[in-house]
């Protein structure tokens, strides 16, 4: 009996030991399983982790993520390329086999796979198939029906999708703030539907889009650039849908709340909380870190920053901007001591032309390109053109990752009486802008500039730095406004007035030229193409301004065989190469004299309308309805022309004083069907080119992962 008790007790202890051992093994298996499937912690957010490739042959390996419902991301992928008929392969069977379909490679091709070494790229399932409809992704050889590597989609897998995050409602005692649904589109992008803000915050009105950590909005947060990338206090909105991008390398996982916040009053006017572990797609935004060599840095726009250091009697300034190769960056001291003002400002214009950098000193005496007015240069003119000195000394320049960085120096008190002094005992109002250069590397009307006052203290006791990494995403090209054509044999008179150029969808998009801010409106249309018949007489009723003392609003009409205009600004040698067909007489000394300068009739934006929003108008017709016209009294100047056989088939109407304000005149022998077909074909060709540009601008997901 005692022996039986001993055996029974030993058996009980043995079974207990085995249970403990089994539990330990289960824990070990669970840990190993979790280690095999958990998301790697290093690097940026890449989507929802699926797992590692199970590697069987040909060194196929890597990690696999779900980017969205349709797209895989492969990171660190390797394959020796020695398979005979090998493809990315997927299907809904229990394991990889002949029943499946080819998944196009990162270029959308179904070619046999070549060698990969530690490569990151995306694969999109064909025919709008979803990741939840397949059970595995494999590297599979159809010839030998061998599986080189595979990864299985977990059951009940939920791929990343945009997530809803509530809506904004006004807080009692604050300005009106409201919205419909707020969507977290990806790890860096927030879309607010039907957003409204009445712009009536009290005090300084320093209201920003604001994010941070903690249980509720507070002053310890960060600005979010508005939908155009500006960091100024936000404007008024009326049921607008806007898309915001978190600054620098910040993601939605770094914040706990989003707010419309008054920084001066430290008040939240409407906010939402951000849930933890949102299952959203990774962002396509490319983040480019940029290190400043100077101790102070101010982020002026998501794509532009200024850094500086004062040492002794000199100030060193560095401008860095995410700009195109034909664009400039400008920065300088305001023309007013009480606000940021372009008129009277002292600025530097910095750019890189090929392999050479420039930092050129400019003086702004009028809001127009530099022109001669009664023998004097006025407008945005280089200092050395108006009798001053180029006071800036170029130090270094570089262009890397589409970012221009230009460093230069100047004495705080310049020897040029036309330059302003950098004061160190108080903040100073500054101005800045970015835009395109013309063919002479002169700045044209800026595309990006602030609407609010900007102040900088150049000599603080402690360094200041609010700069963040540059970001860029694929270009979102908007359709150009319709190219108008006046093709009517009964029209013999054209009224020429002036109006806004209309942004990138307007003059720039229609002609492909840079703009100075104004353009010709012919019979109410923005720079239409005209079709005139040889032998017939036509009249242009010109209302472009007849005051030669005005550098901004003096625009006699001229017709030449050269597309840009601004004949009066050209050198004698360049003028001699251009054929003037109408609008200019020459004096006995051979100097050009305009003859078609009529009283000014000008369309303007209504008061309070932001010119930077011109591209938000879907059509020119909608844009044109918002403009307000003012016309000086007096009869228009009449320019009569009769095209003859010596005229080229294409000529151009433009301004005598400023470049890039007009467009084409087609000279035909008859208003025949062939000419009309040519017009239609020309329009179709331009439409095709636009579609081609839009298609070519589409960047694959791989670009964002490099």
Automatic annotation (TrEMBL):
Residues of the signal peptide: 1-37
UniProtKB keywords: Repeat, Signal
Keyword Disulfide bond: no
CDD domains in the record: DOMON_DOH
Keyword check for Protease: no
A Pfam family recorded for this sequence: DOMON
DOMON domain segment(s): 302-435
Domain DM13: 47-154, 166-275
Name this polypeptide is given: AGAP004500-PA
């Amino acid at each position: 009996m005692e022996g039986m008790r001993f055996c029974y007790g030993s058996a009980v202890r043995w079974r207990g030991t085995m249970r403990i051992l089994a539990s330990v093994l289960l824990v070990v298996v669970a840990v190993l399983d979790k280690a095999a499937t958990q998301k790697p912690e290093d690097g940026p957010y890449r989507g929802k982790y699926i797992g590692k490739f199970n590697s069987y042959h040909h060194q196929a390996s890597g990690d696999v993520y779900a980017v969205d419902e349709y797209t895989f991301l492969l990171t660190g992928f390797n394959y020796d390329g020695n398979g005979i008929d090998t493809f990315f392969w997927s299907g809904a069977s229990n394991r990889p086999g002949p029943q499946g379909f080819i998944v196009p490679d990162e270029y959308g091709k179904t070619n046999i796979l070549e060698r990969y070494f530690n490569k990151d790229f995306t694969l999109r399932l064909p025919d709008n198939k979803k990741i939840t409809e397949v059970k595995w992704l494999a590297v599979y050889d159809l010839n030998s029906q061998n599986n080189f590597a595979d990864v299985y989609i977990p059951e009940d897998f939920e791929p990343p999708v945009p997530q809803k995050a509530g809506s904004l409602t006004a807080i009692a005692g604050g300005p009106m703030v409201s919205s419909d649904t707020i969507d977290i589109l990806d790890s860096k992008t927030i879309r607010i539907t039907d957003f409204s803000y009445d712009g009536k915050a009290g005090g300084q009105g320093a209201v920003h889009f604001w994010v941070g950590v903690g249980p509720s909005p507070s002053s310890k947060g960060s600005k979010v650039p508005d939908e155009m990338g500006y960091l100024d206090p936000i404007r008024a909105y009326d049921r607008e849908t806007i898309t915001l991008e978190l600054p620098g390398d910040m993601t939605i996982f770094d914040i706990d709340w989003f707010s419309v916040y008054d920084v001066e009053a430290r008040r939240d006017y409407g906010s939402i909380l951000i849930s933890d572990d949102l299952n959203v797609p990774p962002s396509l935004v490319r983040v480019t870190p940029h290190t400043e060599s100077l101790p102070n840095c101010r982020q002026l726009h998501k794509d532009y920053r200024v850094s500086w250091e004062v040492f002794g009697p000199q100030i060193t300034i560095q401008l860095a901007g995410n700009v195109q190769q034909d664009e400039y960056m400008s920065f300088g001291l305001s023309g007013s001591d009480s606000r940021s003002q372009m008129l009277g400002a002292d600025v530097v214009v910095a750019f890189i032309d090929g392999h050479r950098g420039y930092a050129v000193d400019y003086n702004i005496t009028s809001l127009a390109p530099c022109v001669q007015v009664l023998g004097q240069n006025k407008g945005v003119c280089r200092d050395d053109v108006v009798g001053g000195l180029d006071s800036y000394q170029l130090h270094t320049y570089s262009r890397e990752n589409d970012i221009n960085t230009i460093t230069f120096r100047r004495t705080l008190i310049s020897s040029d009486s036309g330059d302003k002094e950098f004061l160190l005992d108080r903040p100073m109002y500054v101005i800045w802008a970015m835009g395109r250069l013309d063919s002479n590397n002169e700045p044209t009307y800026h595309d990006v500039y602030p609407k609010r006052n900007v102040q900088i203290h150049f000599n603080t006791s402690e360094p200041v730095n609010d700069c963040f990494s540059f970001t860029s995403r694929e270009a979102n090209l908007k359709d150009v406004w319709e190219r108008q054509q006046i093709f009517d044999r009964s029209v013999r008179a054209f009224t020429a007035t002036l109006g806004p150029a209309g942004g990138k969808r307007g003059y720039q998009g229609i002609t492909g030229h840079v703009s100075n801010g104004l353009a010709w409106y012919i019979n109410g249309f923005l720079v239409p193409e005209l079709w005139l018949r040889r032998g017939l007489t036509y009249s242009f009723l010109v209302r472009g301004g007849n005051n030669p003392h005005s550098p901004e609003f003096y625009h006699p009409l001229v017709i030449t065989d050269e597309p840009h205009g601004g004949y009066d600004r050209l050198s004698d040698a360049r003028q001699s190469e251009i054929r003037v067909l109408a609008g200019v007489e020459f004096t006995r000394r051979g100097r050009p004299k305009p003859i078609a300068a009529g009283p000014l009739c000008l369309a303007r934006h209504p008061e309070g309308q932001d010119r930077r929003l011109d591209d938000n108008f879907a059509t020119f017709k909608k844009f044109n309805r918002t403009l307000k016209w003012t016309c000086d009294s007096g009869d228009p100047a009449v320019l009569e022309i009769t095209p003859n056989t010596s005229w080229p088939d294409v000529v151009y109407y433009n301004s005598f004083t400023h470049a890039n304000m007009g467009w084409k005149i087609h000279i035909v022998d008859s208003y025949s069907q062939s000419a009309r077909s040519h017009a239609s074909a020309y329009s179709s060709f331009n439409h095709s080119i636009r579609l081609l540009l839009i298609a070519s601008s589409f960047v694959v997901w791989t670009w964002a992962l490099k």
